[in-house]
Amino acid sequence: MARVTTESFQIGIVHLPENSSAVGAVVGNLAVVLEQQTELQPTEIMTDTGAYTDVVFGLFWLLGYRFCPRIADIGGARYWRIDPSADYGLLNGIANHRINTKLIEENWDDLLRLAGSLKLGMVQATSIMKTLRN
């Protein structure tokens, strides 16, 4: 189940098939949001625990959405930082993975093309996620 909220606090509930894979369910959420035929402009996507990956978070962010999964077992999650000398307070002990900003910069044009293609419906979310997972 996914919950899509908008700035006007309107909520829509989307039920995906129970046999959907975790990644498939998240991609399904993205597809529903991108392909919905209403005037609603969702800003925040909430899902049950499932396939929350760095790619999924990044893709939702590029598309202008806030991805908020309810993570049941957060023990294996990775916490990232851009500035290794920044003070993250209580997260200093666990935010030990560094974001490779050079890699993002080198691929920024491609990332923007990907986001634009998804927003304009030139490609489907399911196709892109299959490609990004390989």
Structure report:
The protein has 134 residues and is of the alpha/beta class. The chain has one domain. It is 38% helix and 17% strand. Strands 2-1-3-4 form a four-stranded mixed beta sheet. A two-stranded parallel ribbon has the order 5-6. Helix 2 (54-62) links the parallel strand 3 (42-47) and strand 4. The model is unreliable at 4-9 and 14-20 (pLDDT under 50).
Question: Descriptors for this entry?
Answer:
alpha/beta; 134 residues; two-stranded parallel ribbon
Measured as a percent range, the helix fraction is 25-40%
Mean pLDDT: 75
Main beta sheet: 4 strands, mixed
The count of strands amounts to: 6
Order of helices and strands, N to C? EEHEHEEEHH
- If strands are numbered along the chain, what order do they take across the biggest sheet? 2-1-3-4
Low-confidence stretches: 4-9, 14-20
Class derived from helix and strand content: alpha/beta
Strand content: 15-25%
How many structural domains can be distinguished in the coordinates?
1
N→C terminal distance: 26 Å
| Coarse morphology | globular
Cα gyration radius (Å): 16 Å
Please report the number of helical segments: 4
